[in-house]
User: Fold this.
Amino acid sequence: MSSSGRNPVLLAINQYGQAEGSQPVPDRASGLAIECVNVSKSFVEVGDADLSGPDEAGVRDGRQLLLPFLARRRGRRRRVDAVRAVTLQVYPGEIIGILGQNGSGKSTLIRLMATLLLPDAGNIYIFGHDVVKEATLVRRYINRVSVEAAFFKKLSPWENLRYAARLYGLPPDRAACEVRAILDRLGLKRSKFHEPMEYLSRGQQQKVAIARALLTSPVVMLLDEPTTGLDPRSRREVQEFVQEINRERQATVVLTSHDMDEVDRLCDRVAIMEAGEVKALGTPAELKRTWCGREDASMEDVFFAVTGNLMEEETAENA
Ligand SMILES: Nc1ncnc2c1ncn2[C@@H]1O[C@H](COP(=O)(O)OP(=O)(O)O)[C@@H](O)[C@H]1O
Ligand SMILES: [Mg+2]
Assistant:
């Protein structure tokens, strides 16, 4: 469903002087879009203090405020290894999917790539540029869209995108052109351009969120659960939109998802995370062959083969 040529504005030179659709020149010889080398990130989580006992409700409420201090005193702070020694290479122009249960570290890995978190150990390079040492430069290459994308709900897509364009420093006349082009590109009816966001379907809102990311001309799109919570039609629309962006702009896409079929259909390669580690990585066909012994297996079969085996291993270790 390619619509190349439909939108000349998107093929212009962007604000950083890069030709749209072309990948930036890598700084390191690797030529990789994203390179994670032994990346780790942990958090300190404060566990629930034991509030049982004879306390009355009021006293309990009071103690609620003291909870972090009580927890610290009782040594209930727990270190969570959200991402553990992840090494991952992403090639320019590919769509790579990350599957994993809730809490397996997908969003943390995305946030590390997006310069929103600092790794405790290891390095991440975006087109050869270190996300820590060259964060400003890296931010020109990437944009992240998360499931909780924030909008002014009472304002229209037009107003929200014009606002974002100003934040991103696009000159006003250029911004109007870009925003119109992007909204057309979304397949949003002109009548919807000026309706409050809150009247748009979830799918349309999500497409506007992705479109907003396109204002910065990212060559790496980090999409954290772009289709979670969408109805089947909206989900399909967003999936097609992601594919089109990938094809037309040769954008490298990292997407996390719980939808096995989505990842199977959309992604060139898939990583399966478990407890902060990448446990399996390959093309859907490779994963099916390796983990299920047959290429007609489903991605769900692969997922359970990978994570199920691990659960068995853990049980055996604990026994
Ligand atoms: N800011 C944070 N503070 C404390 N713990 C966090 C924070 N962000 C993530 N975690 C923990 O790190 C682990 C991985 O979380 P996350 O990356 O959000 O997983 P996923 O996106 O796969 O659901 C979880 O145990 C989560 O509770
Ligand atoms: Mg997440």
Residues 8-282 form a domain with the Rossmann fold fold (CATH 3.40.50.300). The longest helix spans residues 299-318. The chain is about 40% helix and 20% strand. The two ends are 53 Å apart (CA to CA).
